[in-house]
Amino acid sequence: MKKKLVFLIMLIFSISIFTSCDRLTEILNNVNNDDNLSSDPIPSVSVEPSVMSTQDIGDLSFTKVNFGNRLDIDGPKISYPLPSTGTPNILVIPINLDNNNATNEKLLDINYAFNGTSDETGWESVKSYYQKSSYNQLDLQIEVINQWYTPKYEASYYENYLNKYNEKGNHLLLDEALEYYNEQYDYSYYDSDKDGSIDSIWLIYNHSVDYENNDFYWAYASTNPNSDKYDGVKAYRFAFAGIDFIHPTIQEAGTYNPEGINYDAHAYIHETGHLMGLDDYYDYFDDKGAVGGTYGADMMDYNVGDHGMISKLLLGWVQPIVVSGTGSASFGLESFAETGKFILISDHEVTSIYDEYFLIEFYNSDGLNERDNLIPNASGIRVMHIDARKNIVDGEAVYNSGNYRSGFLYDNSDEEKLFCNTLRSDYYNSDTLTKSSFYGKLDTFGYINYTDYKMHSGSSIPFKFNVLSVHDNQIDIKLTIE
Description:
The chain has about 475 residues and is an alpha+beta fold. The protein has two domains: about 20-75 and about 280-480, no CATH class; about 80-275, no CATH class. The chain has eleven helices and 20 strands. The chain has helices at about 20-30, 70-75, 105-115, 120, 125-135, 155-160, 170-180, 250-255, 265-275, 310-315, 335-340; strands at about 55, 60-65, 90-95, 140-145, 200-205, 220-225, 230, 235, 235-240, 320-325, 325-335, 345, 355-365, 380-385, 390-395, 395, 420, 445, 465-470, 475-480. A seven-stranded mixed sheet has the order 1-2-10-12-13-14-17, with no helix packed on it. A five-stranded mixed sheet has the order 4-3-5-9-6, with helices on both faces. Strand 7 and strand 8 (about 235) form a beta hairpin. The longest helix is centred in the N-terminal third of the chain and has 12 residues, at about 20-30. The protein starts with 20 loop residues before the first helix and ends with a strand.
């Protein structure tokens, strides 16, 4: 889980320097002198959801593509992930490490945080959040055991535990709890995809969360490769977090205001993303790694808002509209949060989600972005540079060279190049995105900014655009591919 505040180093952009103000004025006049520049929306991209459905607009072709990849099918170095579509099972086990805090009221809190409705929670539970974020393609079946499991030893024993496999006390607590409930539960029921492992397990402890050290008493997802089998299945993927995250103070929440939330599931939602195979998108180390990233505006970064384009693509919830050809096209792009529509462009033919490309969306503060209000009144184009290539050595996917241990070639933590990066419109030092970070009416991309930006492959950005107009649920742009 992300620490309360992660301060990013200022992203230093390469900006082309023009020797004449007249030349700059000429460029701006040319890109904004378009017949479609009006207050009325122009036709939006309306590619049918079927695979390889194509729409021609202007000189370009727009094709809805399902690449057939998904983290829980062929993700790099991801074993037994929680399935990201359908009705997978999660078993939640309350762990009593503090007898004074093992109440029935706390058990109800856990159930609301995982299964409550939007009205009951004041925002979202884990279940309701993922129903909405996945556009109703993921319906988690979450069972909370309605009693506290009291471990064999005092809490301090688990805090200091470390076995020969370098496994900590949370692994021991998992094994103990599964053994304790073995006669009461058929664990094979919780293996919905029949891969030989329980889909996922949550351990919720009632000891105080350690907000200062973020060590044992924190929130994190883990794997249990040495798990015993119960009812023919292992317990490979699990998460561990404190009950305190359900009722945080403003200072403890850190990146959002929890006031008005009855049962807060932000931390559990973030860690559930890890259970499905998603990496963190924030920087673990101040002195390592490339600058840039998502600037907090993602559930896998600041634990806020909706999952972004790349996460939803990796999880199989959306299919990109791939733009090909050369020339220009003017069209409308609807809100990604509401419709799941977004554009993919690269300098080569993309045949897999595990590749390098650019993603373009119309971002606004709708849907799951609205409550956290990370970017007040944000509305505009967001451009993301993605390099989701697997780290392949001798034909096999292996962990990359960083300490984060990602199966992708790059990550957003300590690699010298980024897995995902926002090509923002503003250029000042800001840890998070602001309203001016997005491309709004009359803004341009690729004409005077990012002209020297290079893909990791060494190629230049193959496109540019200017924004024609912005509406409540649609933005109109003129896109040019060279």
